[in-house]
Amino acid sequence: MNKFLLSHQSIISDLGMTFLMLVIVSGIASLFYRLNLADATIILLYLLGAMVLALFIKRRVFGILFSLVSVLTFNYLFTYPRFTFHSYDRNHLATFLILFIASLLASALAAKLKESARASRQDAYSTQILLNASQQLAKAKDAKQAYYCAAMQLNKLTEAGILIYPYSQDQLKEPIVYGMLTQEMYDQNVEKVLKKGAYAGLVDFSNRVYVPIHLDDKIFGIAGIEIEKKKLGTLEENIILSILGETSMALENLESLMAKQKADMKAEKERLRFDLLRMISHDLRTPLTSIYGNAQNLLQAEDSIDPANKKQIYTDIYEDSKWLIDLVENLLAITRLDQDNLDLHFEEEIVEDVIEEAIARVDSHKREHVIEIEESEEILTARMDARLIVQVLVNLINNAIKYTPSGSHIHIQTQKKEGWVLVSVGDDGPGISDAMKEHVFEMFYTGNKAVMDSRRSLGLGLALCKSVIEAHGGTLSVKDNIPHGAVFTFSLPTGGIHNE
Fold first, then answer.
1. 441 to each of 437, 463, 469, how far by Cα in Å?
2. Which residue among 304, 320, 336 closes a domain?
3. Which of 206, 223, 258, 414 is the most buried (most CB within 10 A)?
């Protein structure tokens, strides 16, 4: 209905423009006639009017109409006897015929010039679309974005509804639609084009053109273009094939990039696994050797060891065992976070209770440090997996204990901010350099500081903490403590109670 109205309006517009041009030319011709200018000048004026009119009208029939009416008007207004369609001069018949033919030719030449200009603009527009498609496809970050980019550029080119069926794992996926579709989304012709594969080319079915998106014999998808009764020109077909060719290359590059990333990730996991085994075997040797030696001394010479040395041996065994337990806890937590089917047990917990449980589990060296807790005025709750958050706090507090001298202060603070609970663990030790801040959350990174008990740290603690907090949707950061020291702060989503 809308197209009928537009066509009707276009006819009226062309008719009005034809009438207006006839009035203007006849008016100027009347002025020339009063100035006693020759008939040839008036004839040229009508020829000029026919050429100008052809540049503005959409239908050539009105150019023919203008030529015919121009002859009649010239006969009626400017030949003797005037204001009649009679002519006593036989030369006028030849003049009328030449005027009519010349007007038709002038109109045709102007229309051809107009069509040529339109074609040039269309060529430039099509070339620009192809360039834009190439640039945008090069920036596509995944296959879906590449398909969408191709659909958008095809829509701009053809002004038609576009649907693209991605093809992977030997089956068609849900189509990506761009623009308005006038018929049902799916039809059996898609399967026919798919069976023909890369050799299908442009296939026209039921007012819809289907084109395979392929690179050599590899099919990436099927593109459908609704053309209705409009036929695609050769240039449009070539541009369509070029856009889809660029799409295929972009999809191939994305697949290659993803394969490379998977290979790099696999290689990185293998490297981490090797480093982990190497470092575990190296770092476990010292505490296990100590536990073995102390236990052997107690078994062989317990009665000859004085009480003070015996207590020290028990203490060493306890601390070495505790260090091993903490290491195993971290390794188990990392294994759990590395699983694809990670299932965190979120519950609403009181933050202060979790902090107290963590302090009870920290290294025995906490007796040599002053641990202070600054709680919020309100009872803070957060959604968390309490066991993992306790492990985070234990790692952060133990980290502060190991890297600060005896007598240092460890300050734990909680506060609520914009729907998050912030927990900070700070110390007044030597702090962390800016260069080290960039790496402290990397697995196996230990910096260049010595640990308080002289053992090498595996560097799992802070990497584990960051993974746990990010799995909760929060963030973990480190900054300088003023005047000296370091502060680690992590965020957790607030719970539902005591939040009003």
1. 8, 5, 12
2. 320
3. 223
Alpha carbon distance 28, 23 (integer Å):
9
Which of 272, 296, 320 is the last residue before a domain boundary? 320
Sorted by sequence, the CB contacts under 8 Å of residue 49 that are 6+ apart come out as 21, 22, 24, 25, 66, 70
How do strand 381-384 and strand 347-350 relate by DSSP bridges?
Answer: antiparallel
β-pairing verdict for 409-417 and 370-374:
parallel
C-alpha 371/C-alpha 367 separation (Å) is: 9
> Rg of the chain's alpha carbons, rounded to an integer?
43
Q: Could you give the C-alpha distances from 341 to 4, 335, 344, in angstroms and in order?
A: 59, 11, 10
**For 37, which DSSP code?**
-
Domain of 394? 326-493
If one counts the domains in the chain, the total is: 4
422-480 residue pLDDT tens: 999 999 988 888 888 877 877 656 555 443 343 434 456 787 788 888 888 899 999 99
pLDDT at 394: 86
Question: Counting every residue, how long is the chain?
Answer: 500
> Considering all CA atoms of the chain, what is the largest pairwise distance in Å, rounded to the nearest integer?
153
